Amino acid sequence: MAPSSPLPSLLRDLITANHILHHASIVDGYGHISIRHPDQPSVYIMAGYLAPAVVSTPEDLIEYHIADGAPVDPNAKKGYSERFIHGEVFKRFPGVNCVIHSHSEAVIPFMVAGVPLKPAFHMAGFLGSSVPTFDITPLYTSTSQRDMLVNSVPLGAALASHFASPTSPADSALPDNLVVLMRHHGFTTCGQSIQDAVFRAIYAHKNAAILSNAATLRAAHGLGSGGLDFLDEEGMKGCRKMNEATADKAWRGWVEEVRAVSLYRNVMLEEEEKQ
Ligand SMILES: [Zn+2]
Predict the structure, then answer these.
(1) Where does the record place the Class II aldolase/adducin N-terminal domain (predicted)?
(2) How far is the CA of 143 from the centre of ligand 1 (A)?
(3) Is 234 a catalytic residue?
(4) How confident is the model over 240-272, as pLDDT tens digits?
(5) 274 belongs to a structural domain
(6) Total of domains in the chain
(7) Mean per-residue pLDDT for 159-171?
(8) Strands (E), the chain
(9) Distance from the alpha carbon of residue 52 to the mean position of ligand 1, in angstroms
(10) CATH number for the domain that contains residue 72
(11) Separation of 239 CA from ligand 1 center, angstroms?
């Protein structure tokens, strides 16, 4: 590792991001976040087989090859079976440096109900006008265990393809879609930084909750289905720009929130404080 490598600070932030996502109900005992290795772009890093709330040291993290999802250390401890979600998004989009997978209880109802997830407010312009849905079911064979898990390179690649629009060049470094819904499962989002991806995961979840509340209000007032008021195209673009320029402020606040909760330990942060 070069002396100037950003790796230590990224590992510190990755540990804290696990806690922030747990604190915001984006992950519970399941769900995960990964980063691309800043010095080895063909490697990604994520927690081993641990609940996100208890990830606390760099030893809890595992490095994987993007090519096939194999651990860099063949003797690595057990990891997540769904790491292929992460590896295949990193493989398809070289500009993506962070991937998050969630079973958000606010987002899943949209797939169950067949209702499109659209941006309701200015914190969710990144959703765009149409959030694609990945359906794993047609990819199963007669012998598959139909558990909805994206636990192989082909399944991960199929999911990753939904981050590109049909007209996008195959070599685009960045995805056209920043959130992909996963039928009977949850959603995946990504970013160029941990901060961007965490922001999107949290506000995809909050946006879903707001839409559900709005639909409930309409129904309670006898206003019928439809009629929800979404951001327009220009609003989406403008809000996305604003969100990307201000995500650092929210991040700093979330870091302090989880530092104040004794459940969450980040040994790297604790060592920094001692210095
Ligand atoms: Zn999952």
Answers:
(1) 12-212
(2) 21
(3) no
(4) 999 999 989 999 999 999 999 999 999 999 999
(5) no
(6) 1
(7) 88
(8) 32-36, 43-47, 61-65, 98-102, 133-134, 179-182, 186-191
(9) 13
(10) 3.40.225.10
(11) 29
